[in-house]
Amino acid sequence: MYPQLLLENQLCFRLYTAARMITASYTPYFKPFGITYAQYLVLMVLWERDHRIISEITECLHLETNTVTPLLKRMESQGLIIRQQSQADNRQRIVSLSSEGHRLQEKMKDIPNCLAREIIGSGISIQELTSLVPILDKFIAAISQQTTDSNK
Prior knowledge:
By secondary structure, the protein is mainly α. It has 7 helices and 3 strands; from the N terminus they run ααβααββααα. A 3-stranded antiparallel β-sheet has the order 1-3-2. Strand 2 (81-85) and strand 3 form a beta hairpin. It starts with 10 loop residues before the first helix and ends with a helix.
């Protein structure tokens, strides 16, 4: 057996597992609002700045258009967003928060703190948790660059 092929030696497996577990941890918080983690991410992008074209949302979330478009359609049918054709370019769609999408920001403002308290209560310190952010940012940038270079 090759040590580089052992699951326990895989950074990618740890990141994959952490991402799945975080997404699952958010689910009970989102259930009362009838949204998914992916929809929450879209809402956060729009709460930061409303009235975005779809390509801006996909770029912020590091997702493909074919992943985001069905998500936006569901959010529109739930009354969370409004999609309109751009006046400047009829090939583009502008995504905006509905009044309900705006109201959810106030209702959901404490969710990140709730999850952080649970994690910190499980033996990881706030310093350890916050130290992950710059490391993961560098990791994401490096992987993004590698992906961009290999697609050229």
